[in-house]
Design goal:
Layout: H1 2-17, H2 37-44, H3 55-84, H4 97-111, H5 118-157
């Protein structure tokens, strides 16, 4: 009832004030909070106007995205090089696994160097991060098993 009376009063004030170029937003009391989350966000967040990009701005945005992807790719490559330090043993030919892994990483990065599609680049980066993490997890698990086996051997032999 009080809300309806206040609404009628504010409508009456608008009529008496006469036509203006811009009507003020209706005032709400603090206890009359927003009805929905969207209303709360609309009321309190500043919205950026949707800007129409011209050719130069679109090219700059694409270059920025590419630079970001380039930075991520270089970070991934460095992480791979750091992770390969942990692979000290040799393969069947006597070549250290560290060198084999580094050569494979270099080859894959060179093959993907010219890729410009952001979705493909993102997929490659995610796949690379996942592969490094899986390799490190397997290495940690194998190291843990080796330590446990060594401890079991010491306990059994002692």
């Amino acid at each position: 009832m009080a809300v309806a009376g206040r609404t009628r009063a504010s409508a009456l004030l608008r009529v008496l004030a006469g036509p203006r170029a811009r009507q003020p937003a209706p005032v709400r009391c603090i206890h009359e909070g927003p009805d929905t989350i969207e209303e709360l966000l609309d009321r309190h967040l500043v919205k950026k106007p949707a800007a129409v990009l011209d050719d130069d701005a679109a090219e700059a945005e694409a270059r920025r995205r590419l630079t970001s992807s380039r930075r991520e790719a270089l970070g991934l490559y460095r992480d791979i090089l750091r992770a390969t330090r942990l692979f000290a043993w040799t393969d069947d030919r006597g070549v250290p696994w560290r060198e084999v892994l580094r050569a494979n990483a270099r080859r894959e990065f060179e093959e993907a160097r010219g890729e410009r599609d952001p979705e493909v680049v993102a997929r490659l980066l995610i796949g690379g991060r996942d592969a490094v993490q899986q390799a490190l997890d397997r290495l940690a698990e194998a190291s843990r098993r080796a330590v446990e086996a060594e401890e079991a051997k010491r306990r059994g032999g002692a």
